[in-house]
Amino acid sequence: MIIGLAPAALTLFFGHGLPLRNIAISALIAALFALFAWLLRGVSLSGALAGFGIAFTLFAADGWPTFALLVFVFLVTLAATRAGHARKAERRLAEPHGGRTAAQVVANVGLAAYLVALLSRADWVAAFVLYACAVAVLAEAAADTCASEIGKAYAEKTFLITTRRPVPPGTDGGVSRWGVGAAAGAAGATAAVAYALDTLALRPALAVALAATLATFIDSVLGATLERRGWLNNDAVNFLSTTAAVVLTAVTLLVLYLLV
Description:
single chain, 260 residues, three-stranded antiparallel beta sheet, 10 helices
């Protein structure tokens, strides 16, 4: 819980002291969002507290557009989690009814809050890169969840990414056409919403979509190797995958703007 609320403290620090009115409004909006997510059973109680900290940070640091992007990602991942529930239950792959915990929430989207919290201390070039990387974190979280949940529900053939050996749906490191398509679609949709909200230009949005999609393959590789051996748990894999999305976004932006 403390880790989940840490981004809120960072916002106050990096924002050089937000006006009390902004803090109050941000806290109210974040609390309503956390309550909404908890009532829909998208998150557990601890997940709602972590979600509050992240939502507060995004709203306080950057206002409605970035918060709206977080809401979009939540709704997309919730829909993917509930898609084909009967089929996933039959395969014993359905998510628990309690929703995602604080650790899962922070592992998936916490990095986005930290990056957005840094915006007020960055020059315009750094802020441009930081914001694109923050959107990439959200896009990768959406892509990874959709790939996993849609693949578990609808994929008939799943292969281990490292060996191409057939494995049951839901296997760590397993990939399928359904999953890959869902990942690309979710990453592209998140980037498109950021573009529609006028928070990203076209080229950065394309960079985000590409980086987030590629990062889901890194997630699968980590799942097939380190997670299957018990060296990392799923939360650690998810955090490393969002970190990979950040690095890939920064590199892609460098190529797009300096080398092309």
